[in-house]
Amino acid sequence: MSKMFSRIAMTNSIVLLLFSLTFLEHGLLFQRVSSLGINYGQVGDNLPPPDKVLQLLSSLHINKTRIYDTNPRVLTSFANSNIELFVTVENEMLPSLVDPQQALQWVNTRIKPYFPATKIGGIAVGNELYTDDDSSLIGYLVPAMMSIHGALVQTGLDKYIQVSTPNSLSVLQESYPPSAGCFRPEVAGVMTQLLGFLRNTKSPFWINAYPYFAYKDSPTKIPLDYVLFNPNPGMVDPYTKYHYDNMLYAQVDAVIFAMARLGFKDIEVGVSETGWPSKGDGDEVGATVANAAVYNKNLLRRQLQNEGTPLRPNLSFDVYLFALFNEDLKPGPTSERNYGLYQPDETMAYNVGYKEGKATIDVLDMRLFVGHSHAN
């Protein structure tokens, strides 16, 4: 009997969350053109110089890229281009940037000299802080974000540059089904502070979401087509009855439900990293050229269709593909060095646009889809 009442209570709770989220999606949020960006990592000793990278990105008609620092060479090279940069404050810098004066100095030296010639649209304060091995930095995150935002206000840049932080999907205690999405108890308190900041500054919640990891850990339980966006029966959330035909959208909706459980129903979600490795170690199931090509091709197709998730069908969301290059100095398993669409010599790591010698996608002039190889 107690289990039955527990299920009824769970169902009623989700119905209330769903009603409020649906109202917001139809009433307050509006359709906008989604944007595809790409992560430009630089953990390699053989990567092309930033000016060459700019030429490559421009040839692909990609207008947003994320870097993991504020590299002056990149910021200078991207000046007067059409590409918007999402820059990063390194994790170890957070304690000093809690001080408003230090944050102002950081903005005055790392951002202001390059803006507006270089289009800087966002600052990521740290990366995956809530699940980093060094938990001592967690308490500095929101205060540092507040100080940096305050510095942007002082310099008149807050109208142009958002402040947020990318989170690992492992901040969730539950992500399946999506309507059960909730944050881990140990981060719920600090997550409330973060979400309050994001709401007040109208900034998105960024998530690093990799369906590949879920498949690698349970290849006999999770259908490959479901994680690759291929045609498949999908799954139906038993509480909301929403149908999901791919895991990425289910993960995004799980984050939306988790925020709603903390009382935050009106914050946009963006995917700051997602991708698939083209090579891996023997125990890294699914890390193949074929799967990487299919995942990225299908994801790009979905972005061109300007889709939302089942929970927010009328609100498209930004996605940053990981990554532009294979980076040979990244630590960890082989897969970590093989997420790139391109090799360091600017040849394609694999082709995401050809099938039997013919382009599979003829929408827009995006050479990434039609097998463009950018030579030096």
From TrEMBL:
Enzyme Commission number(s): 3.2.1.39
Protein name: glucan endo-1,3-beta-D-glucosidase
GO BP term, pick one: carbohydrate metabolic process
PANTHER family xref list: GLUCAN ENDO-1,3-BETA-GLUCOSIDASE BG1-RELATED-RELATED (PTHR32227)
Coiled-coil boundaries: none
GO MF term list: glucan endo-1,3-beta-D-glucosidase activity
Signal peptide: 1-24
Enzyme class: hydrolase
Any Pfam family the entry gives: Glyco_hydro_17
Organism of this sequence: Arabidopsis lyrata subsp. lyrata
